[in-house]
Amino acid sequence: DFGNRDYDLTYPIASTSGLRQGLTSYGDAHFSLFLRKVFIKALGYSEDALSRPIVGIINTFSGFNPCHANVPQLIEAAKRGVHLDGGLAVEFPTISVHESFSHPTSMFLRNLMSMDTEEMIKAQPLDACIMIGGCDKTVPAQLMGGISANKPVLPLITGPMLPGSHRGQRLGACTDCRNNWAAFRAGDVDVEEIAEINEELAPTIGTCGVMGTASTMACITVALGMMPLKGASAPAVSSARLRLAEETGANAVAVAKAQRKPQDLLSKESFLNAITVLQAIGGSTNAVVHLLAIANRHPTVQGTITLQTIEEIGKRTPLLVDLKPSGDNYMNDFHNAGGMLALLLVLRPLLHLSARTISGETLGEILDAASSKRVYRDSRIIRSLSEPLYPSSSLAVLHGNLAPNGAVIKASASKYRHLLSHTGPAVVFENSADLARRIDDPGLPVTKDSVLVLKGIGPIGNPGMPESGMIPIPRKLAAAGVKDMLRLSDGRMSGTAGGTIILHISPEAALAESPFGIVQTGDMIICDLDSRRLHLDIPDMTLEARISQRRARLEGEDGPIRARQQRRGYRGLYERSVNQAHQGTDFDFLTARGP
Ligand code: FES
Ligand code: MG
Predict the structure, then answer these.
(1) CA dist 550 to 328, 350, 435, 539, 556, Å?
(2) Is the C-beta atom of 136 inside 6 A of ligand 1?
(3) Cα separation of 479 and 299, whole Å?
(4) Ligand 1 test: best mutation among 67, 70, 219, 467, most atoms within 8 Å of CB?
(5) CB of 67 closer than 6 A to ligand 1?
(6) Is the shortest distance between the CB of 135 and ligand 1 below 6 Å?
(7) Which residues form the Dihydroxy-acid/6-phosphogluconate dehydratase N-terminal domain (predicted)?
(8) CA distances (Å), 187 to each of 194, 375, 477, in order?
(9) C-beta 205 within 6 A of ligand 1
């Protein structure tokens, strides 16, 4: 009630309308509403239109983002859904982040995108918001921002691309980008053929067509209860995808009316379900970082979901979905095999069925309703609990003196399993530039039993924690037929990559207290997956002495720590505020409880 009934009668904006939110900008709420209407009317809206629930639609289209190339069509379909159900759809932009066109790395921009998303949802007069995105960092950024903004939000995913074809073989970005590049490096594929392959790896728009980070986050968004079941896998170029957009528009009107907010909807159980799905799909290691960041935006969930939770759920969850990089198939196969509905029905005994969803029903109610009909499942792509692809722990968490705060490995993507329990001498690269300079040096003292160590690619060390953790096999070994080696870093790797690769070592080498920072070439490293142990085999006293020597250098007058404190701009903010991988690499001031 704005104290002037005559004005309200003349301009019957519904008391629920988003246009009434935050009406303090001009001192007097009545005048603020009047001014707001002046400007929205410039767009030609009628009083009737403005009296409806207002559904914002986030437009993340960009000419630099093929994963989001269908966003204009999705907006059109989502608007149709909003309008058919009596709402008013209003689109607005936020930044668009594509994996390949985001220097130094897309992860550097994830937190910026989450701030853009949070602040624009908060700032604008909307009753609910559809967040359209798909590429790897977008969905996490939008979930982080949406949870922090805590207005009703509905993720709408752009969807995966279709696979391509090369000389009778199916291909898909980007597991096959890596396989084929490795074959080219080893001399098995010539320059003409690799150019042909280049044209087929991403043959349509949409997100990467394997179980990389984008697909993983799409499945997780369903498991969190934030999206309809088909929302994870319908191809970007399919009519099903457009119908999902229309359905999301209609859902948004209902969610706006019910004011179903993410902080009320999501619970610890929602996140436990998401982790169960993450393990069962053989999801991306990146999703571990994103899930921790998303959970830590939620005021009551923060701190209850840790690397230990991921490890514990992994131990009782088999890998069921046969998709690259852990298996052999593509996202459209998963879709045609029954998708998330079929998977959740198999996983049912492991799920928390009382978790709420955006529809207003619990997950259990949705699965009950679905299972009353006949649900198709292709058991070659989506296995049963008794015939898994991998018995448990597709993602495992390691600890030890090298990684006191943990490290992550996608054990299911290791095809040379003897390397999962391996002891060998370290060959150390201090940073990415050092790696680029020496990895193919014929004189590099490396054998197939060496452990390749790359430092300086953690959240701070190479801001954004780039996906350089899949250290290439040195050319001389690749040419001799070596396909995999034990590799360690404080960085990430693409969700589409495979190999015996330990990632996210925390604390990262850029921090003065990091034991990982003091590893030297020739030190023996012990990795034992069974005991989840990652150990540097040197005496404790040596380890401590090396840390204190290094600390003096890092913290000195010309050292990198001083330089970070003085750095300007977003990079300065990033380096001073980002937390470690085991916390989600969010900015400390953005987590639910702040720094
Ligand atoms: Fe966008 Fe892979 S590059 S999802
Ligand atoms: Mg990726």
Answers:
(1) 45, 46, 20, 17, 10
(2) yes
(3) 52
(4) 67
(5) yes
(6) yes
(7) 52-365
(8) 11, 46, 12
(9) no
One-letter amino acid identity for 49? A
Single-letter code of the amino acid located at 56: G
CB 413 within 8 A of CB 326: yes
pLDDT at res. 7: 47
Which atom of ligand 1 is the closest one to the Cα of 134? 4
CA 587 to CA 151: how far, in whole Å?
Answer: 21
pTM of the model: 0.96
Q: Split the chain (595 residues) into runs of 10 and give each run's mean pLDDT.
A: 42 57 68 84 91 95 98 98 97 97 96 98 94 98 98 98 97 91 90 97 97 97 97 98 98 96 98 98 96 98 98 97 93 98 98 98 97 94 96 96 97 92 98 97 97 98 94 93 96 90 98 98 98 98 98 94 95 97 98 92
DSSP per-residue codes, 121-187: HHHS--SEEEEEE-STTHHHHHHHHHHHHTS-EEEEE--BPPPEEETTEEE-TTHHHHHHHHHHHTT
Whose CA is closest to 477, among 175, 187, 178?
Answer: 187
Structure token pair of residue 185:
């490096």
Atom 3 of ligand 1, nearest CA residue: 99
Distance, CA of 46 to chain centre: 40
CA quadruple 312, 317, 318, 319: dihedral sign: negative
Give the three-state DSSP class for 408: strand
DSSP 494: -
- Cα distance between residue 465 and residue 292, in whole Å: 15
pLDDT value for 24: 60
Cβ 523 vs Cβ 401: under 8 Å: no
Q: List the shell of residues around ion ligand 2, using CB closer than 5 Å.
A: 136, 212-213, 494
Atom of ligand 1 nearest to the CA of 212: 2
Residue 207 Cβ < 6 Å to ligand 1: yes
ipTM here: 0.93
Strand, coil or helix: what is 587? strand
Q: What is the DSSP string of 332-377?
A: HHHHHTTHHHHHHHHHGGGS-TT-B-TTSSBHHHHHHHHHTSPPP-
Q: Are 509 and 455 in contact (CB under 8 A)?
A: yes
Are residues 194 and 258 in contact, defined by beta-carbon separation less than 8 angstroms? no
